[in-house]
Specification:
CATH superfamily of the largest domain: Alkaline Phosphatase, subunit A
Shape: globular
CATH topology of the largest domain: Alkaline Phosphatase, subunit A
Order of helices and strands: EEEHEHHEHHEEHEHHEHEEHHEEEEEH
Number of helices: 12
Mean pLDDT: 93
Radius of gyration: 22 Å
Distance between the termini: 64 Å
CATH architecture of the largest domain: 3-Layer(aba) Sandwich
Number of strands: 16
Helix content: 25-40%
CATH class of the largest domain: Alpha Beta
Length: 448
């Protein structure tokens, strides 16, 4: 589709401005996928041809991260651009150990209300005349809560409304609701925002036989073959989604943003995740490729070495669409960096890990397990004594002292270098403390 050109015309002493239509926005959010598990990231067996093509048409940050390796807080960060300790949704559920059923339902409703604390992407785009559609995972009640004009999730307290209900059918059961919404937006002549938070490759790992068989033929363990096939199934739906745009000549005027909510390393012995992946602050839990693709946006496509965070997506998309940008956002507007190849001016990124079950909805520190920072090659993890109810095996916390890794030399984080580099530990720990000061949490920041 040809680019629309802004025209300035002077007629009868009056200045008339015909502005280019605002670009559409599509968020593709993978659910529980390792940063390594794509063809374009070099995986030797997993086939992802559609995402490989998208990566070639994108600014690709291979060192992308999410601040929190758990789906619900990670998704809220995407929708409002805030860290979990700031937006308040630090875990998936109130702790059943702390809250009985009636009290738990009250706390679930309270967590959903936390979305009102900050502007959301659908609300801000709505001010610009955008229509918006939610599909896939959505924990924060009905799709309308958060500003979506259209969507699939009925939401808590309705049956099945914990994290998506009807919305979880998208992708696995086709993309018709999205196709209908796009046609409606075109009929209304309005730009749109699509939230494709698809429940893939998330469990249940039940891929179609046609996708599973090629991986079984490689002699892989069944659990691995199923997971690989789920990654390919997810990729297939991404191709179908982009086809919807291309068949309507909308691809060039659409910003596609790609990210994963949190990482996953498949356990070869069962349909579950291996240690140091989902819910953890290790690379297997927080790292993700992040992509921006916008044919009409004059982006300098290609691979970038910069470290970026999912908190950067919010201000970047707002800038690209010309929407109002709230003050004091923690993320960076990357738009100018996407249009050139200059290094991003940043001295590091930060993140936090909380227990799956929220011990105290009003006090995030009660469930705090880790805080971390990445600066260039260095990554520092600090361990805390927050309460863990379920998933205790996910958070063994056997090493309570600081953990320092050289990610460029040791991406699997196998060698703790904290004892050899105490000055680096002290400097990065001070940065973490300045980023988010915590109270009354036990942590060792020196080797004793």
């Amino acid at each position: 589709m040809k680019k629309l050109i802004s025209l300035l015309c002077v007629f009868g002493g009056t200045l008339w401005v015909s502005a280019q239509k605002s670009p559409n926005v599509l968020y593709i959010i993978s659910d529980d996928q390792s940063w390594t598990d794509y063809g374009f990231m070099g995986h030797p067996q997993i086939k992802t041809p559609h995402l490989d093509k998208l990566a070639n048409e994108s600014v690709l940050f291979e060192r992308g991260y999410v601040p929190t390796a758990l789906c619900r807080p990670s998704l809220v960060t995407l929708i409002n651009g805030q860290y979990a300790h700031k937006h308040g949704v630090t875990g998936n559920d109130p702790s059943p150990k702390r809250y009985l059923k009636e009290k738990s339902n009250q706390k679930k409703a309270q967590l959903i209300s936390y979305l009102d604390r900050h502007d959301t992407l659908p609300n801000l785009l709505g001010e610009k005349g955008y229509l918006s559609h939610q599909s896939g995972k959505w924990w924060e009640g009905n799709f309308k809560h958060g500003g979506f004009t259209h969507g699939m999730t009925r939401g808590f307290p309705q049956p099945g409304g914990r994290h998506g209900d009807d919305g979880l059918k998208i992708g696995r059961n086709g993309l018709q609701p999205i196709e209908d919404f796009v046609d409606h937006s075109m009929k209304e002549n309005k730009p749109f925002f699509l939230w494709y938070g698809v429940f893939l490759p998330h469990t249940p790992h039940n891929p179609p036989e046609r996708l599973l068989k090629p991986y079984q033929d490689l002699g892989l363990p069944l659990s691995i073959a199923k997971y690989y096939a789920m990654c390919t199934w997810f990729d297939e739906t991404c191709g179908q989604l982009i086809d919807i745009l291309e068949k309507r000549n909308l691809r060039d005027d659409t910003i596609i943003v790609y990210v994963t909510d949190n990482g996953w390393i498949q356990n070869p012995e069962k349909n579950g995740y291996a240690p140091r992946s989902k819910q953890t602050p290790y690379e297997g839990g927080i790292r993700t490729p992040i992509m921006f693709s916008w044919p009409n946006g004059n982006l300098k496509n290609g691979k970038r070495k910069d470290v970026v965070s999912s908190i950067d997506l919010f201000p970047t998309v707002l800038a690209a669409t010309g929407a109002r940008t709230p003050k004091d956002l923690p993320g960076l507007n990357l738009l100018e960096n996407l249009k050139n190849e200059k290094p991003i001016k940043r001295k590091g990124i930060f993140g936090e890990s909380f227990a799956h079950d929220i011990a105290d909805v009003e006090n995030p520190e009660e469930s705090l397990i880790f805080r971390w920072t990445i600066e260039g090659k260095w990554k520092l993890l600090l361990t805390y004594d927050g309460e863990v109810n379920r998933y205790k095996t996910t958070h063994p916390r056997e090493e309570k002292r600081p953990q320092l890794f050289n990610l460029l030399q040791d991406p699997k984080e196998e060698k703790n270098l904290a004892e050899q580099y105490p000055k680096v530990v002290a400097r990065l720990a001070a940065k973490i403390g300045k980023w988010w000061p915590v109270k009354e949490r036990k942590v060792l920041t020196k080797w004793e």
